[in-house]
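Data availability (excerpt). The following record was deposited with the supplementary files.
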Amino acid sequence: MTILFLFKSYISCIVLTMSLIKSITTVGGFTLLSRIVGFVRDILIAKFLGASMMADAFFVALRFPNLFRSLFAEGTLNVAFVPLFSGELHEKGKSGALLFAKAVFSFLFYVLLIFTVLMEIFMPSFMFILAPGFESIPGKLELTTSLSRITFPFLLCVSLVSLLSGVLNSVGKFWAAAFTPTLLNLMMIGALYIITPFVNNPYAPAYALSIGVCLAGFLELVWLLYYVKKEGLLFGLLGPVKALIHMGGNVKLLLKRMGPGVLGSGVYQINLFLDTLFVSFVGAGAISWLNYAHHMFQLPIGIIGVAIGIALLPVLSKHIKAGEKEEANTQINRGLEISLAMSIASMIGLALLAHPIIAVLFERGAFTMNDTLQTSKALIMFSIGLPAYMMTKALSPFFYARGDTVTPVKIAIFGVALNAALALTLMQFYGFVGIAAATGITVWVNAIQYMYRLKRQGEFSLDATFKYRLPRIVAAGVTMGVCLLLTLRFFAGCYPNWQHETNLHSVLLLGLLVFIGAAVFALVLIGSGGIPLNEIKRFIRRGK
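Predicted structure:
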């Protein structure tokens, strides 16, 4: 009987593990798809809108609902909702869980509906607060207000979508929710080609994109309602009075648990708000240049930084709970090595190839050579902070593994204040480039704070292995940089205008540059003993 029981337990573990791998693969696959489609979307937006007044207005109109998106939706709501819904499902069964979901859905719907209506009415005032510098350019603030009124209902829809995603995720259904960001990108691409010809307005592409964003919200909501119904989890909408009656119990607990997430997200959104406010005074095109550059800067962070955080958190949690401080310190050192290796390579690559990357990917249609030059300047400034940003991804899991959510918020609040002061000062001398530089400096200060606090608490120290490997990581980066500069000079001699030619030839040359840089860095890094190949493979497996 004992052998049979152990066998059944073993089979059960295998089934659970395979199920987890399948779920992660599903979410990861659709996330990658969304990033690819989003990249195509950005290229097309650059083609149709360039970095004009119209582009600035649209990017602010898109950013405005997203300022509140992370407060009401995404991680903040999902992280708090899923455990409570799963608990209701386990304790009270399907009917009890759906009653809880209905109460939360109804409460969220009415609150956001009122909030959306108020925003639509007072949009001109809020636009003046968000981008006061637009008033100096005739028609720009009015255009931004009109576009924002079109995009803002997206907030209501996407918040409800987040709740429905939590319901599906709670019962192990991931793919439909993971596909929703791709729907937004596809709708925006379709709007550029389908809606633009029917809009009788000089700013037709911006209006078409804004309509696409709004329609995407409703499409995502209908999409998930269909799959919720398919799984037999569909629930109705309570009336306003009944929604208030059901405010007790787990609904209040949900709102309470959302508090820290709202605070943390709010700090980040304040940062975005201040950046938008400051750059609105710089002049036409500045917001667009920063936006395109920031999307390129976020690409390695989304691929590498998130994987490092995912890999470290469970390992650190295990060692901390077991009281194994030395092992935890070792893991942080190895995480720092991986993050610094990948980020130094990305930083040097983005800084040296900023101009050809922006030119080859974006310079077509309304996006001019001057837009390429200005965007590449911003990208260089952003890339300076890349190693520090990756370091925070490696260091912050230690605080969360100990249940310390206060320290990261404190560091974030200080970072917002510092970024605002630096941006306000540097923009006086360097314009929008100064705002990008402020971001790069701030993330370095944040990373130093993380290291200082860990060291002061006696929880962290750089070990001998890290001190041995760091110079080799830097040497690999320097060698890669020299090879890239020589290759760029060779290309400039043989193909003087290759960066500004919109054809397959320029894409292939850019791809060759990226390949050469990555190959040289990897060969020098591994060959010099900077990071053994087996450690890189182990982190990749954990990240997956």
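Summary of structural features: The chain is about 85% helix and 0% strand.
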